[in-house]
Amino acid sequence: MLTVNAYAAPSATEPLIRTTIQRRDLGPKDVLIEIAYAGICHSDIHTVRGDWGPQQYPLTVGHEIVGFVTEVGSEVAGHEVGDRVGVGCMVNSCRECVNCLAGQEQYCLKGNTGTYGSVDRDGTITQGGYSTHVVVDEDFVLRVPENIPFEAAAPLLCAGITTYSPLAHWNAGPGKKVAVVGLGGLGHMAVKIAHAMGAEVTVLSQTLSKKDDGLRLGADHYFATSDPATFEQLANNFDLIINTVSAVIDLDAYLSLLALDGTLVNVGAPPEALPIHVFTLFGNRRSFAGSGIGSIGETQEMLDFCAEHGIAPETELIGADDINAAYERVLASDVRYRFVIDITTLR
């Protein structure tokens, strides 16, 4: 076992603290990664605070991880020492169910193994990327292209793939009108990616405070949802709406913005239920859907797409001792647009 420095939540109500955690010995198919940067995702906060259910503490979170391969198992074929690599939201799956066999292991019918807070193959609870090292099965390790700035790459492993996957699945591209609800960590990536795909992009945000940013990131239009006239002006307009906010919204109001056969896809994950009137769906044959991260293959596709189109998240680099303050700023929407932890500050 390898003992490594980490930041962990002692409970659902206490601040995260410096500690150490154990990493398993390298198996024949495993890769040891020295972590360089780890992104802070709103999911980390929901998890450690028990919003999505009870956890086993202490818990080290973080599922936006980039670093360098420092050792490989005897049967590893796809990665070498020194490679720039990444790890996202999952580190294993059953490999046997129909979804896994279809290359959609994020929807593993037995439940994929999350990067943190899941039962690992050895019965231990997985611990995430707020740490100096991680051991991961090579099949769940991704190649990070050289022309993606490494200090900004980590959020692509969650925010990037979480927005890329529905945009690709619902065919965002030339001739399609795409709306993005919320311009935060997820939303700003949705804008960049949808724009690069060739769609006409509109941001729907509570206020116009981030309008200049939205237009700079690639939006063609920007509207304030606090203005009731927005919903009248944009009724029956969009082919696809990506809702990135992790809070309850008036789904019926947003569904009314969909054109014929349009789809509203939720990628934000509020802990509360989202009410909906089914009659809203009848108009324009609208659809309401959800999308969870992406497969390993699609995540690599996303990384290559971002490298090709010069896409990287907008990030603010912090030290490990700033994590608790960063959590409060995330909750106050005071970040543009993703915190990234410099893991050298944990060594």
UniProtKB/TrEMBL annotation:
Its EC number is 1.1.1.2. It is an enzyme of class 1 (oxidoreductase). Residues 11-341 form the Enoyl reductase (ER) domain. Pfam families: ADH_N (PF08240), ADH_zinc_N (PF00107). SMART domains: PKS_ER. It catalyses: a primary alcohol + NADP(+) = an aldehyde + NADPH + H(+). GO terms for molecular function: alcohol dehydrogenase (NADP+) activity; zinc ion binding. Keywords: Metal-binding, Oxidoreductase, Zinc. Its cofactor is Zn(2+). Gene3D superfamilies: Medium-chain alcohol dehydrogenases, catalytic domain, NAD(P)-binding Rossmann-like Domain. The keyword Cytoplasm does not apply. InterPro entries: ADH-like_C, ADH-like_N, ADH_Zn_CS, CAD-like, ER, GroES-like_sf, NAD(P)-bd_dom_sf. Belongs to the zinc-containing alcohol dehydrogenase family. This is alcohol dehydrogenase (NADP(+)).
